[in-house]
User: What shape does this take?
Amino acid sequence: MEDFKNLTPSDSIRPKGPVCNEPYIGSETVLSSILPNMFEQLSDGIAIARMSAGSGPLIYVNKAFEELTGYGRHEVLGKDCRYLQGSERDQPEVARIREAIKAAEPVAVTLRNYRKDGSVFWNSLSLKPITVAGELLYLGILRDVSAIRKTEIALDRAANIDFATGCLNRQSFIGAVKRLFTKQSGPSLILMIDIIGFNDINIGYDFDVGDALLQEISRRLRGTAASLVARIGADEFGLAFNVPSEAMAQACVTRVSAALAPDYVIPGSKISLRFTIGYALSENGITAISLIRNACAALRTAKSDPLSGPRRFQRADEDEARRRIRMTRELKVALANDEFIYQFQPQIDLSTGEWVGAEALMRRKHPLFGIQPPSRFIDDAERTGLLLALCERGLVAVADFAKRVNRGRERPLRFSVNVSATEFLHRDMPEILCRVALLTNAAPEWLTLEITGSVFLNDPPGVLEAFRRLRDIGVGLSVDDFGAGYSNLRLLEALPVTEIKFDQSFVTELATNPSKIVIVQAIIDLGRALGLTVVAEGVETEDQRALLAEMGCPIGQGFLFGPPIDGESFLANLRQESLAGQANRAIKEGTFRPKTPFGSLGS
Ligand code: C2E
Ligand code: MG
Ligand code: MG
Assistant: This one.
């Protein structure tokens, strides 16, 4: 306090006019006795430092300063203020204070300070230079704004952090990748991860289970030493690694896959989750945003081929992403306009000629080009995710139709629906089939899912389990296009399938290629031995039908029996076929009585 009493006011702080809101410092008396007394009454901390002496020792602090910092004035007078910063001298605000003092300018900052007991408080500090008797002093006003700051931090956190997992959210991930990009030396690796079928988990279990799984996934991802872990969508995570070399990037991708692979424990059981991963590595000149976009494009491509493992970004993914955006828009409109319909192609018992079932085949009723076959849209529908959106809706439509057809029928027809590998892997098919049966009242036994062999490739975890559950429900499982591309005989034994549909090419070449006869016979015998239904596809001629029947193939499908037709025509044809079938049987049994406008003929 002694130092302070000796001060004299300078011109620079003397009020210039009669009315002034500044503290009036009119005489030495004011400065030496009234002013310190006033400072003692304030609730803000006041500290005055003499800048001319060395590092700027304090020459005055008020009572509020003592209360705020926990330091008594006898402990701080004669020392500079830096002890309040603890070991955090590298706060950007400290640098701003240093610059201002060097230029003898005022400065206002909010910085983290430490009390004597080590506890942290947020100090809103305003520093003003004052010249007193030709000597430069700094007047500091300190205010504890910890409560406000805490609220600010909470708000900031809410805006930047994903609530369910505590990871960064999408927006802050982008910002953080940008910052990471400017700092680091080696290349950046961005990974995008999608949880396959997460929506079905949420529906099938509970949102609590879904949240717990998300938390476990984020915990595992944090354990991979990624620089950033973010949840960027409902079922998508983003990771950033700072990798020293390109060679290390691959190791990071493998580490992430391995971390996600083990089973997940949920109340009462364990489940295995599947993921698709797309990733991109920075190259010269690329921006952070482009790098993230590339990883997203790789993920989209990976999603359409979920069995191929993590996909590294390639230029083609970018072109594909643009095309997909266009197609997505077009197909969404088609979906909203109900342009996707089913046609039904009959399946025939080759020995009796009776209709035993039908394959449901998707068509697009294009407003300009008319009925379009799947070859015109199915790949795009799959790549854009539209097929996934259609999946349950389509099954409901077919089940509804099956119910109409089978109403009152002694021997119900079975309806086969094609399910792509993507649909099978991204959707919880057993769950969906249960819902479809409940919703439509159709018997699950009336439905068969046709799956191509690629579903079994790499034996993805969970497929066998899903097959078992589908069989438990009663749904049939058919291996479509058997013999073309990937078909593993061993898997037929291991998987609970009910039907083999051998590929059209076998039927087409039956007459011209004797080796095909041997293979077809082997498939028919194998099917019989395993208790499976065998269906021949693409039967176009009577010769093919006769040969297949002779070889013991039970069921056929093809243009010989009828092309795929709309539901109403199918019903009408079925009625005629049934009448014809009844008539044939009656002729065979000698009980045939043709009907005339006047009633039955004959005795
Ligand atoms: P697929 O499941 O092997 O279907 C058989 C295809 O053979 C159908 O072609 C059918 O119209 C055609 N076909 C039937 N009989 C004959 C015949 O005697 N001769 C010849 N040459 N062809 C015949 P489509 O309708 O163009 O379907 C092609 C493929 O599109 C299907 O092959 C299936 O893989 C896919 N697809 C059809 N509908 C759906 C669907 O709802 N979902 C999914 N994921 N894929 C579908
Ligand atoms: Mg099929
Ligand atoms: Mg087929």
